[in-house]
Amino acid sequence: MKQPQPPRWATLLLRWLCAAHLLDELEGDLHELFQKRVKSEGLRQAKWRYICDTLSLLHPVLMKSKPNPYPKPNRTDMLQNYLKIAWRNLAKNVAFSAINIVGLSIGMTTAILIGLWMWDELSFNKYHQNYNRIARVMQHQSYNGTTSTTPATPLPMRAALQSEYAGDFSRISLSSWTENRILSAGNNKLIKKGNCVEADFPLMMSVSMLEGSAMSLNNPTSILLSKSVAKALFGSDNALNKTVKVDNKNHFKVTGIFEDLPHTTEFRDVTFLLPWKFFVEEEPWVKRSETNWGNNSFLLFVQIAPKTTFEQVTSKIEGIKARHAKEEARFSPRAFLHPMSRWHLYSEWENGVLVRGRIQFVWLFGIIGGFVLLLACINFMNLSTARSQKRAKEVGIRKAVGSVRTQLVAQFFSESILMATLAFVVALILVQLFLPWFNQISDKQIAFPWGNLQSWIFALGFTLITGLLAGSYPALYLSRFKPVKVLRGTFIVGRFSALPRQVLVVVQFTVSITLVIGTLIVLRQIQHARDRPVGFDRSGLLSVPMTTADLRSHDQALRSDLLQTGAAVNMAESSSPTAEVWSSDASFSWPGKDPDQLGDFGTVGVTHEYGQTVGWQFRQGRDFSRQFSGDKLGIVLNESAVKFMGLKSPVGTNITWNSEQYTVLGVIRDVVTGSPFMPIQPTIYMLKEEWAAFIHIRLNLSFTARQALAKLEPVFKKYNPGSPFEYKFASDEYDQKFKAEEQIGQLSSVFAGLAIFISSLGLFGLASFFAEQRQKEIGIRKVLGASVANLWQMLSKDFVILVVIASILAIPIAYYFMHDWLQHYTYQTTLSWWIFAAAMLGALAITLVTVSFQAIKAALLNPVKSLRNE
Amino acid sequence: MKGTYLGEFEEVVLLAVAIRIGDAYGAAVVDEIEQQLGRPVNLGAVHTALHRLEEKSLVKSEMGGVTSERGGRRKRLYNVTATGRRALEETRQLRNQMWDNIPKIAWS
């Protein structure tokens, strides 16, 4: 007869909660009482009492686990032993340890650098104390069907804000753009950048005053200097109350000296502040703009009142321009506040919608940094688990002599934390070495925060977490081995024990290959834009800004003197740099123009020789010429302008502008102006000597640049005695256009390179481990007649399959992201299949090289040696 | 001193261990107490009491053999130590002393 059984759940509960060493006797007692009670009191009562007894046994005293019968050494004693063993392990397997530590430290270096970079980006502009209350007034405006967004505002906007919404703002200040001016004191002459601002500006931006008063810009003849500029002008003398001459014309009294603005603010280039009143008096066009709502040329900063929000103020001021200026309403202008906290990271609009900004790069690089660190941790885990069989015996012996599991876990963690700490020390050294280079390519001035306690706590936590992460798998996995099995030698790892390792390798290579493909596409996009026909000849072209009126008055004499030196082949003037268009006008009209269309063109004023000097390439017609006096009313178009106007035979067409008739003389090939990734602005070139702002000089190539400059400098000194000789090479200026993309290209090359390097390092370690593990097998195969090629194939195959899987995963991921990225550019390269193929083949090649080295080494080993031992 | 005081239930358990000398384990003690006192006791209460008594070294224990009625599980056998015996005697003496001091008049 089947015996009556007690309720099973109660037994299970007891087993789950009670101390293991007491379980046997307690269960025995319960069982015995139950059987007895079934007989004396019946099944039902017996069950009920069984449950009561079980619950009563769940007493803390009975749940406590068995005290450890072994001697309890001091914690530090054991730690000493762990570290000693860890150190011996390190020294015994130098190759493995080196791979681990180098890999981990490279991962950490990357993570630290990216972390510093992200921190720097996220704390941008925080130097200003009113960070949370400051905004820039910006505008959306629509014409020809597209909406553009600009920080430039019309002057009357300021007065309107002041008179209508005074309660919403604590401070308002207009500002000019940051412009070059010549500052001189005594014989010291400098060209420095600065703004003309209202008196409230220094207070609003909490510019930190070292001397003098921040409020002194009410006076139109005062100037505030940054400390470095004051030092450059006056040396060690006290600059306060001294006189500075600006642009060789106006004298200002230094009424304050402020601390240099840090690199991480929007105003980092600003080295002096001039009074707004001076700006208005000095520049007639500014004076004229005071009532002109149509001239969007000024910056307007506000600090909002304490009890309001940016959104509330924006909704109030949105329609301000359309209300005041009826003729501007057709552009449907909408004013809004752009808060300072978003200036740096969220500042690109497309058709009036915020689309992207640097925040994307912050995310992107954050993710990449995390991945690179993850790759390094994966290496660590992979190598440790692969070596687990070697260390299984150690675990067995430790358990046999009395180690409990927690001690083993502690041992492996202390080992991995030791490794992580070593790697961290190496990483700190690497960070120090690479920080200057990193700063250079990322255009930053990051310093490692050595003195900051917080950053040390963070670094400590970071190391601990990395150590725990990297050591988690081995610690939890190795400590679970059963000593009897391990020591008897029948330790079988199980069929799928390699699976996690394989998955990790696939993850590593997927990430690496994705990064490589991404990098190749970024580099190709840059190359694609670089290969774009530029439309002028950059080599040996020099430009000098015309900073003073002196140069303007003697331009013919200057020209003949420059040519006489022999260093210059040609010389001309223009209103914009060669590869930029600085002004535009929307009031052109031509035969066949749609009345609703805006005749919006870039306008550049040039002199007769400009075309020859920069090397225009004519498609149709001719250049300006001194032989025809009618050329005063002639214009040259670029191809985009012809396309925009829809002219069939452009040469000879009459174009009306400012109620004057101009005739098209010729059409030139597009000159790349603005971003080389975007379409080219339709542009009109006219003979306007009075607009000239730049002198362009074509150098004689038989001189070196240095010789040519030495010959030219005296000429400029003669005609422009008040200012230093400043020049720029057109090719350098052109290269500047690629700066942002080059930065991404360089950084992603570095990261992709690191990712591949770390992954192959791990692969190298794994391959050498497997080759060592299968030494005997290889020996026997050789004895039975396997060739080196056979063995090589056998050892490499596994890894090659993993890398192929990784490539197959990486290709769609990379395609998805890069396709998206390329949409940002109008002038874009195609995603050709060979990029993907090249990345895949490259990864395979690297894998084969890494693995083959070990495989061939193992295959060449004399089988006698590998079979003899034991 | 903590070890000397004997609670009422502990005293009962200790007495039961003494009665069942040679075969005193958890279930037997429960059985004995239930028979002697005629009321149900929880196994948990007995075990915690035994545990405490062992901590005070009034009993000592060793693992016993396997019996089939326990489904092949072993039992822990308890024995009263000399200290345990002295504690029981002391308690009894204390009680007697108090009995002796009751005046005759109290029972009238």
Automatic annotation (TrEMBL), chain A:
The keyword Cell membrane applies. Its main location: membrane. Residues 367-482, 750-861 form the ABC3 transporter permease C-terminal domain. Residues 97-318, 510-700 form the MacB-like periplasmic core domain. The keyword Cell membrane applies. The chain crosses the membrane at residues 94-119, 361-383, 417-435, 455-478, 503-523, 750-771, 799-818, 833-856. Pfam families: FtsX, MacB_PCD. It is found in: Cell membrane. Coiled coil: none annotated. Keywords: Cell membrane, Membrane, Transmembrane, Transmembrane helix. It is a multi-pass membrane protein. This is ABC-type antimicrobial peptide transport system, permease component. It comes from Dyadobacter linearis.
TrEMBL record, chain B:
Residues 14-90 form the Transcription regulator PadR N-terminal domain. Pfam families: PadR. InterPro entries: Tscrpt_reg_PadR_N, WH-like_DNA-bd_sf, WH_DNA-bd_sf. SUPFAM superfamilies: Winged helix' DNA-binding domain. It comes from Dyadobacter linearis. This is Transcription regulator PadR N-terminal domain-containing protein. It comes from the Bacteria.
